[in-house]
Structure formats: C-alpha cells, structure tokens
UniProtKB/TrEMBL annotation:
PROSITE patterns: QOR_ZETA_CRYSTAL. InterPro entries: ADH-like_C, ADH-like_N, ER, GroES-like_sf, NAD(P)-bd_dom_sf, QOR-like, Quin_OxRdtase/zeta-crystal_CS. Pfam families: ADH_N, ADH_zinc_N. It comes from the Bacteria. Keywords: NADP, Oxidoreductase. The lineage of its organism: Bacteria, Pseudomonadati, Pseudomonadota, Betaproteobacteria, Burkholderiales. Residues 14-325 form the Enoyl reductase (ER) domain. GO terms for cellular component: cytosol. NCBIfam families: PRK10754.1 (NF008024). It comes from Pollutimonas harenae. This is Quinone oxidoreductase.
Length: 328
C-alpha cells in the first residue's frame, strides 16, 4: 500500500534555493527493504556536495543518508527487523530528508534503549565515520598522539570523545577560541586555533619534534599541505572529506620528500559494506553512547521544510556539533 509523505527533492544542482518540499509516494517495501516512519534526520557536509553537484547523481533526487524512526512495514526476506522496531541508518541511498521512506534492510540497525531517535540521527553517519577512521582505517590502540581537523564539528566532537575513551591524545584544530574550548571540553588533549597559530609548528611543539603517526582530515584543500607537514616519517594521511573543497593535482613526489608518507581517501560505505559489518560498527558506537562515553551535542534543530536554512548554516560554519531535521 502506498503512503503519501512530504520530502525534500532537487531538480537541478545549485545553492540551498534548489531544495524543494514536495509530496511523494512511498510504495510498499520490496524484498529486503523496510518502510521507516522517520523521527529525525541527520545533516552532513556530503548532503551539500550532492546538492551542489560535487558528488553527481542523476537528477531529480532526494538528499540525505542518515535518519532514525520506527519500522512501519517489512519486505519479504528481512529477518532482523519487525514492525514497531526503533531503528536508524547512516548509509542509505539518497533520500533521508523525508517523513517516511523505504530503505534497504541491510543498512538499518535496531536502536538499543539507551539511544534516542535524535541521538541516533545525529550520530549514525558521523559516529560510524569515526568508528571506521579510528578502528579500521588506522586502528588506534591507545597511547598514540593524533591530529584531527575541525575538532568542534559534528564528526570532530565524537572523535574527541572516542579518542579519550581509547586513551588516545587527540590534537584538534578549530577556527575560534570558543570552538577550541568546546573540543577540549569533549576530550581533546590539546586544540590549536588555526586562525591564530601555525598548526604544523604547534604539532611539532606538542610532540617534542616527533610529529604524529596519523592525521585525520575532513577539511580537504585548505589543510592538505599542513596535514602532510604534521606527519612523522611513514605516517598516514587520512583524507576523508572536502569541507573546504576537494584536494586536486597531487604531486606524489611531495610524499617522498616529506618522509615516505602514506595517503588514503577512505569512505564509510567500503567499511560497512555488509549487514554484519554495519552491525559490528554500530554496536561499538552504541555501546559507547549507552555507557555515556560519547554524548551527542546537537547544536541545531530545524524542521524538514527549513532544510535549506540548515544547509546554509552548516556550509557557513555557523553550526556547533550536530545538526538535525526534526519530524513530528
């Protein structure tokens, strides 16, 4: 049976003004799908890349990859979910900006009692990102000193707390004293205000000249060279985002001259490609949330129809912590 719901769609790439609130039909779930009546939707920089066309998708299309809600219908072949389950997902096909939708069941996990709908919507994509960065891309054991850019952002604040829980010294970067203080309060060992300090020099000071074995960089173009300068010989540059624009025209010789460095450009999808991998990553994340080792800072809430305003705030670096769209 089809249901009519409100959803955000774009018909062309561009600025926030291309986001339109429309009525769409949600058909009965197909095999291995579930229908989710959504409670909260997470906003991420990747949504802006999809809107602008940096990450191109066939138009018209929806936006958003993460949300939480309640299962309304279950397609054949789905064994791990049932109607009424509280669920969340952080790696779906485009289209999370909606009141209800169908999602492949292998992207959907059950929420434990200790995790709310708002927390889940704010943490799935960002939290699973930190999980794969810290536990899969470069598996932190505890005791390391690392550099994490944009430490007061949605991903950054989770990273600060996760690093602390692991016994890792996270050096963060932030653009204002207020953001630096927030990252510090969330568990960062030290925070560098890059508007006033030289990041590479400060990292060298903080590590007594040794520098760091790994840099996690979701900023992109603006921080690329600085990040390489913070790495010890044979260190790993993890470039996982493009908040300031993509990194282009790389000269591989630079990696040699700066100490036989490694570079990776990982994505979440590769690391949670099966239901088993998705559940394992989510279990680790939810465990830390339930134990209060990770507390989700939701700095901004917008209704679905104000999605354009929400994206503008995110792109303008006017947000702190996570931003979510709320649904009745």
């Amino acid at each position: 049976m089809e249901t009519q719901v409100k959803a955000i769609r774009i018909e062309k790439n561009g600025g926030p003004e291309v986001l339109k609130l429309v009525s769409v039909q949600v058909p009965a779930p197909q095999e291995n799908e579930v229908t989710i009546r959504q409670k909260a939707v997470g906003l991420n920089f990747i949504d802006i890349y999809c809107r602008s066309g940096l990450y191109a998708h066939p138009l018209p299309h929806g936006l958003g990859f993460e949300a939480s809600g309640v299962v309304e219908a279950v397609g054949s072949g789905v064994k791990h979910l049932k109607v009424g389950d509280r669920v969340a997902y952080g790696q779906s096909p485009l289209g999370a900006y909606a009141e209800a939708r169908n999602v492949p069941a292998d992207r959907v996990v059950k929420l434990p009692k200790g995790v709310s709908f708002e927390q889940a919507a704010a943490i799935m994509l960002k939290g699973l990102t930190v999980q794969y960065l810290f536990r899969q891309t470069y598996r932190l054991q505890g005791g390391e000193t690392i550099l994490f850019h944009a430490a007061a952002g949605g991903v950054g604040l989770i990273a600060c707390q996760w690093a602390k829980a692991l016994g890792v010294k996270l050096i963060g970067t932030a653009s204002t004293p207020e953001k630096a203080a927030l990252a510090k309060a969330q568990g960062a060992w030290e925070v560098i205000d890059y508007s006033r300090e030289n990041v590479a020099e400060r990292v060298k000071e903080l590590t007594n000249g040794k520098k760091v074995p790994v840099v996690y960089d979701g900023v992109g173009q603006d921080t690329w060279t600085t990040s390489l300068d913070c790495l010890e010989p044979r260190g790993l540059m993890v470039s996982f985002g493009n908040a300031s624009g993509p990194v282009n025209g790389i000269n591989l010789g630079v990696l040699a001259s700066k100490g036989s460095l490694f570079v990776t450009r990982p994505t979440l999808g590769t690391h949670v490609s099966t239901l088993a991998k998705m559940k394992a990553a989510a279990d680790e994340l939810f465990g830390l949330v339930s134990k209060k080792k990770i507390d989700i800072t939701i700095g901004q809430r917008f209704p679905l129809e104000a999605a354009a305003d929400a994206q503008e705030a995110l792109a303008g670096r006017k947000t702190v912590g996570a931003t979510i769209l709320t649904l009745d």
